[in-house]
């Protein structure tokens, strides 16, 4: 292997949204040994950078599911926005389904209601952490807003008045799986959008060329690395495109069953430093 590519939430990050000491040490050892390292995430670049910086890791970042790729010195080398007419169609369908939406743009991340935002985030975290107290859940929900720096506007239509607007990703939430399935189904035959998910209660809308796999293959090629020499790690459906094409595809133990089925290897959960375990195993095989 010559390159390690990992998802963040549910993969490299633990339940506190942090890179554990064990994971950080394993990554730094791999880099010191000559391997390249990249993060591929649904997050914006700013929100992806923060937990990495806290443990002293600087690397290229594929953000917003592949819509934008940044070098380790924060230069944009690939950018794939959605068609604006498709954005309007997604907005219309999702709002009719009463979904909470966030628009990831070149001007920032926007939504329409801070109160609804916190309520949705609390519901998300309650489902993922049923043992957590109400106060802690509220605190983490409000921290999510700081991580992604969501700005609030009166109406989504206000976005389209912004100069040189580019929209890279739309993130939609609903606690009702049936609504998510109906919305996803309405875009199955659309050529101008791909719909994935990073959790049980969300949908993520991107341009078809804004996928982690496509972005990762482009980045690896620029480094002179073939995909057969790439180890990719992930846990959810928005990781599938890169896991399908990686030479060594690793599913977290906490991954969705569909992800486990397409991977050639499996590691421990994100709460058990699964990325470190996978890296150590890969390096051990290489040196064995």
Structure description:
With 288 residues, the protein is of the alpha/beta class. The protein has two domains: 3-79 and 210-287, HAD superfamily/HAD-like (Rossmann fold), CATH 3.40.50; 84-206, 2-Layer Sandwich (Hypothetical Protein, Haloacid Dehalogenase-like Hydrolase, Chain: A, domain 2). Helix content is 38%, strand content 20%. It is built from ten helices and 14 strands. It has helices spanning 21-32, 45-53, 84-96, 114-128, 134-148, 177-185, 212-222, 240-245, 257-262, 274-287; strands spanning 3-6, 36-40, 61-63, 68-70, 76-79, 100-105, 108-111, 150-152, 167-173, 194-196, 202-206, 230-234, 248-251, 265-266. The strands form two sheets. An eight-stranded mixed beta sheet has the order 5-4-3-2-1-12-13-14, with helices on both faces. It has a six-stranded mixed beta sheet with strand order 8-7-6-9-11-10. α1 (21-32) packs parallel to α10 and α4 crosses α5. The longest helix is centred in the middle third of the chain and has 15 residues, at 114-128. The protein is globular and about 60 Å long.
Terminal CA distance: 14 Å
Number of strands: 14
**Percent range of helical residues:** 25-40%
Q: SSE string, helix = H, strand = E?
A: EHEHEEEHEEHHEEHEEHEHEHEH
Strand line-up in the sheet with most strands: 5-4-3-2-1-12-13-14
CATH architecture label of the largest domain: 3-Layer(aba) Sandwich
Rg, rounded, reads: 18 Å
User: How large a portion of the residues is in β-strands, by DSSP E?
Assistant: 15-25%
| Uncertain stretches of 5 or more adjacent residues | none
Structural class call reads alpha/beta
| The level-1 CATH class of the largest domain | Alpha Beta
**Number of H/I helices:** 10
Count of folded domains:
2
Question: How is the CATH topology of the largest domain named?
Answer: Rossmann fold
- The CATH superfamily of the largest domain appears as HAD superfamily/HAD-like
